[in-house]
Write a structure and sequence with these properties.
2 copies of one chain form a homodimer.
Chain A (H helix, E strand, L loop, with lengths): L7 H5 L9 H7 L16 E6 L4 H5 L3 E7 L1 E10 L3 E2 L11 H16 L8 E3 L3 E4 L5 E2 L2 E10 L2 H21 L3 E4 L3 E3 L2 E2 L2 H14 L4 E6 L4 H5 L5 E6 L15 H20 L2
Parallel strand pairs in A: 1-13, 2-12
Antiparallel strand pairs in A: 2-11, 2-13, 3-8, 3-9, 3-10, 4-7, 5-8, 6-8
Helix pairs in contact in A: 4-5, 6-8
């Protein structure tokens, strides 16, 4: 709401897993509210976060200064073919939706090669076949297609390849094709002044032991960037894991992260 | 039970969708039971069935005389990789179970080409990814692999290709591989004497308008074949559909089917 992504009335209608709406939850703390917080009170926002990925853990470096938070695109894709008997339907007469998904995936991996960078990612994480039974040729497949990149143009080029490839595969396999609503958040470049202060801080605290890197995960800084300059730094995630009870960062790395933050804020405070 | 596939005590423990065990259901008709039926009372079993597939509907032929009921093999296959964040895990570090299933499927289709006949079928009808979410690289995939063929040796050769291909894909993609229990029913060749009588009958009732064909679906004749000679004939399924409310056969075709049956029985009865 503060970042302008949702209106308060939209947010008030959202509910938690227990079915409690935000509007009700807000009533419980109404006595503690002191009024609107103006973004003008702040000169910037610096976020310190565990990396949530394997880059620093693998390289052995202590600090990552974030260059961009990647943008994300996400949509459902549906292939509709013909459900049929897995014993009596000859292979050449099948319109098998799983075969279409598999062929789409193979073709997509091949075609994206010349477009992506080592930081680009794309994922089919959800696949739902219908009726999903071992003796039935699946007539329908709904699957998720998600991709992330720090460059808006590249996100759009990837989208075009996805749409064209799905369309060709649908024609080849006798499928009806439909795309769901595309969800997306734009990439956010970190503010250069804040980022320079973090880089100088990293060079003081962990000389030759830090790197610049994009963030593949979304962070609070994405939304706050609508209101003020933002920057981020990462500390290593042990084993590269995140969103699990094992998520942890070595104490020495945590201390280094806080020291970089202090160095950066000190520099920014003494600038004119 | 009669065919010796299950013992009566095994069957008695099976329940219907309402939870009623066969042992209970049998009590309801116990007054009507006249005692065991000996297979010796019968000289053979001829089954007339709707084709459940598109072969006769497509060719416009009226009768199919079955040569073999295909054998079936069915097993679950599991790839275990590494569940991970779909934003922060670089493509080259992923152990994505969906990618493994897709690569397995593509390689299998390619490798089976030189082994199968136009009557062989193989199906991945069930796929279950874990955790099956658009923002998470899937760490596990469980899927069904089913194949059917009229030849026992070919069923075994297909099995070997499936196991070898899955094993190579697992190695390539950093997956742990496991196979579930393999379920199977052997192919059943129709009795040549009964089949010849059906062919002669078809030639009388529908000259130049019938064919011999394997059955890709399982039928009662599979189990009865343990007790006596069996044979089958098919009539066309309108639109090639089955196990649906639309399943139907044209009246003229049904009459032809019954007439072929009568001709065949007449011939068999007058043989020495």
């Amino acid at each position: 709401v503060w970042g302008g992504h949702l209106t308060l009335s939209e947010a008030d209608r959202l509910t938690d897993h227990g079915g409690v709406a935000l509007s009700e939850a807000r009533q419980a703390i109404v006595e503690m509210v002191t009024g609107d917080v103006s973004a003008d009170q702040f000169t910037g926002f610096i976020e310190l976060h565990i990396e949530q990925g394997p880059t620093l853990d693998t390289s052995g470096e202590q600090i990552g200064v974030v260059t961009d938070i990647v943008g994300i695109r996400d949509m459902k894709v549906t292939f509709d073919g013909q459900q049929n008997h897995a014993g009596t339907t000859p292979m050449h007469l099948r319109r098998d939706a799983f075969q279409a998904v598999s062929a789409f995936n193979a073709a997509l991996n091949e075609r994206l090669r010349n477009i992506v960078t080592p930081q680009s990612v794309w994922t089919i994480g959800h696949v739902s076949l219908h009726p999903n039974a071992s003796s039935i040729v699946p007539g329908r497949a709904v699957f998720s297609m998600q991709w992330r990149d720090a460059d808006t143009d590249r996100l759009a080029r990837i989208e075009q390849v996805i749409r064209n490839t799905a369309s060709e595969i649908a024609d080849d396999h006798g499928m009806k094709l439909s795309f769901g609503t595309m969800l997306g958040l734009e990439p956010v470049a970190m503010d250069s002044r804040l980022r320079s202060a973090l880089e100088a801080g990293a060079d003081t605290v962990a000389p030759d032991n830090w790197r610049t890197m994009p963030s593949g995960a979304l962070h609070d800084a994405t939304n706050v960037s609508r209101l003020m300059p933002v920057a981020m730094l990462f500390v290593p995630s042990i084993g590269g894991v995140s969103h699990t009870f094992e998520e942890d960062t070595a104490e020495g790395d945590l201390v280094a992260g806080v020291r970089v933050l202090a160095e950066a804020v000190d520099r920014l405070g003494s600038m004119p």
